[in-house]
Structures are given as C-alpha cells and as structure tokens.
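Our preliminary data section would be incomplete without showing what the modeling component actually yields. Below, a chain of 259 amino acids is followed by its predicted structure, encoded as tokens that our downstream tools consume directly.
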Amino acid sequence: IGDLAVVQRRCDEAAASYQRALDLLGQGAAPTHPGALQALFGLGRVAACRGDFAAARDFEERALALAERTRVESAPEILDGLGDMFMQSGDLDQALDRYRRAEQKRRARLPAGSLRMIESHKRIAEAYRRQLRRTAAAEVLRDAQDLLGSESQATSLTAAQIEASLGALALDRGEPSIARTHYQRAATIYAALGDPDTLELALARFGHARALTALAGALTPEARALADDALAILEGRGPAFAPEADELLAWFSAQTPSP
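Predicted structure:
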C-alpha cells in the first residue's frame, strides 16, 4: 500500500502505511527483518516525496547499509531509490553513481536481458541526458532496446518507457521528426496496456505535441488536441501532479497557434 501511495504522490498516506508496518513488527523485531528494511526504505521515499532530501538520504542510506551488511537482494533497488532522490534534488553526479552501483550489483547475479537490468539502463540513460551527455544516453537506450528481445517485451511497459526516453532525447537534440515517431510508439503501447489515465501516457502525449509543434513552427490543431488530453489526465490526478500540469500550461502560453 505504501509503495503505491508513493507512486501516486500520496505522501502522508504512504508514511502512515510504512509506520504501521513498523508498529506491527513491534519493538522486538530485528532491524534486518525484511519488513523493517522495506519500511525504512519506504520512509526514505516518503521524505523524497515531500521534498525533504536530507531525511530521504538518511533513511535510504541506513536501509542500504543494512541490506549490504546482511546481503539481501534489495540493495540495487535501494541504490536506485537513492539515485532517484539525487535526481529530484538535482545532484546528477551522485544519482549516476548510485545507478551505476545498482547496475553492477545486478550484473553480478542477473542475466543481461532481465527487466531489472534494463531498468538500470533506463535510469543511467536519463542521468546522462540531464547531464547533456546525449550520445552516451542514446547508446545506453539502444542497448536497452536490444535487450528487450521478444515481441511481447517489445510492446511492454518497459518498451514504452524506452521509446518515451528516446523521444525526449531526440527533442533535446533538435530532431522533432524522430521524437514524434518515438512518442507515437510510446503512446500507442501505453494506450494498449489499458489505463487511459496514466502519468506516462500524459507525458508521451505532451512530448508528441511538442514534437509536432517544433516540426510545424507553430501549435497545430493536432498538437493542441494531444496537449489538451495530456492536461486533462494531469489535472485529473490531483494537486500532487501540479508541477507537470504547470509545465504544460507554461508551454501552451509560449506557443503561437498555426494559421
């Protein structure tokens, strides 16, 4: 419950869930108990959700120390959480370091084509993209696509996320035609997976709208419709998703409608 609440940015609900888990374990539970470890990591994610990055780092580094000392398999996920926290706070070098450490741990025990390994590739590529290391980001994302392999994986959530990342990278590089193709593919997969109100579908449609606008040099009716759909999804998810909605509205205000 706590994990889902964090993803949906219901920070207080997530905090209560993790605290209940600790309370149920009781004072006598060993600190290395899997439930206690997960709750500690969860409280770090809650702190990051609230923007308290110092507390998030404290909780998550304590969870990581316990995981590494007891050799449990959750250490890469905790490293990813730390990397995500550093990305949120803008410390890209620290984020990339944690993502690489997570990848190294996974590489030691997982096959190259596992979804967890591909997840590491996605995170590393995003850190590269934000560092403006676009060639490196593209190489890592192409490697991730190659690892997907089967036809079923090529239409999976992971495949859609990679396509969206390639779309963002293409926009960064001033390649709107390529970006449009990637965002179209991402949105098609997201829509086929069955949830019409996902954040990721909204962002793919927004990316598609930006690509179309860049190609036309103005806001076209198709781009406007895509952006309107994206905004409706974001606003429907509530105030926790106001940053994304505000970004879209700011973009709208800067556009010149096509004749």
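DSSP finds 14 helices and no strands in the chain. The radius of gyration is 20 Å. Preliminary results of this kind motivate Aim 1 of the renewal.
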